[in-house]
Amino acid sequence: MKKNKLLEQLDIQIPLIVAPMAGGLSTPELVACAAQAGAIGFLACSYDSPENMDAQIKKVKQLTHKHFAVNLFTQHPALNLTEQQIEKAIVATNQYREELKIPSLTKLNPPYAPDFEKQFEIVLANIPKAFSFTFGLIKKEHIKECNKKRIVTIGTATQLKEALSLQELGVDALVAQGVEAGGHRGFFDPNENDPNISTDNLVSQFIKKLNIPVIAAGGIMNQKHIQKILSKGASAVQMGTAFLLSSEAGTSEPYRRALREKKRETELTKVFSGRYARGLKNRFMTEMKDKVTDSILPFPAQNALTRDIRSKAAQMDQEEFLSLWAGSNAHMIKEHSALEIISKLNFK
Q1: What residues does each domain of the chain span?
Q2: Average pLDDT, whole number, for the chain?
Q3: For the segment 235-252, what is each residue's pLDDT rounded down to a tens digit?
Q4: CB–CB of 89/302 below 8 Å?
Q5: Is the sign of the CA dihedral 174, 180, 181, 184 positive or negative?
Q6: Domain 5-344 falls in which CATH fold?
């Protein structure tokens, strides 16, 4: 396969990025397998404390001497939640705690997520080949720090105005995240409506207007999908859902069972985290959708609110209360090792 700029920047052999999937799905083992296959894998560290993040990165380094990358969510704006807002959200979810036999919540205290600046220090200390970020822009100083250490920077965009602002910021490349993508939607302003642009259309738009490499993400599951999107000018594909049933992924057993059904539709929802994300429909998604809007806290507070429910559900082998993040083509998923999945994609 003819080399392109992005492959040279990342020093990889095939135009494949194994996507960052937060919540323990992107294990060091999965990241290392991607590297061994000539691709690059991303550790999704957004929910990790700096200490745990450092340990995860060091585990990858033990498993492979090849390149890997790290992904973070951008710094969240401070949330000034009222006691009434928090109480409504707690009341809306306590029935599920009762059902799962876990203590009812009475309060929810910040911080709701790890500090981005401390996480970013871990990135700089470990010098991964690439660093990607989602949910907006980082500071120009962050880009400069990465440039000093020759860390490739990759932003995430769901519409052209975001892509142009990322290019102006100085990123080396960006992910064009189509609406088909599983997991969190990367649009910058959580109060805006979803741009709702398909991967194909997004890549076509970006290729015409940008002069940096574009990575296609969303709904890509097989060789046919890859060939189609690369022919539109994408420099690489980013695939996550395709690896959820791999032995190396950190997918829980009830999550795997739901994926194996191949009958559940996917839907965008805010009910688990407070930001739109695509996942397999289950009872929690359906019932919580009918609650009044102000029962859902903004991200990342809602994510902190539902964490105990999701954790207990995984322990109890109960998929109806898990965030089953998956792309719109999840029904096409295959169950193989990560190396087999990559091999069957037939990159030349």
Answers
A1: 5-344
A2: 97
A3: 999 999 999 999 999 999
A4: yes
A5: positive
A6: TIM Barrel (3.20.20)
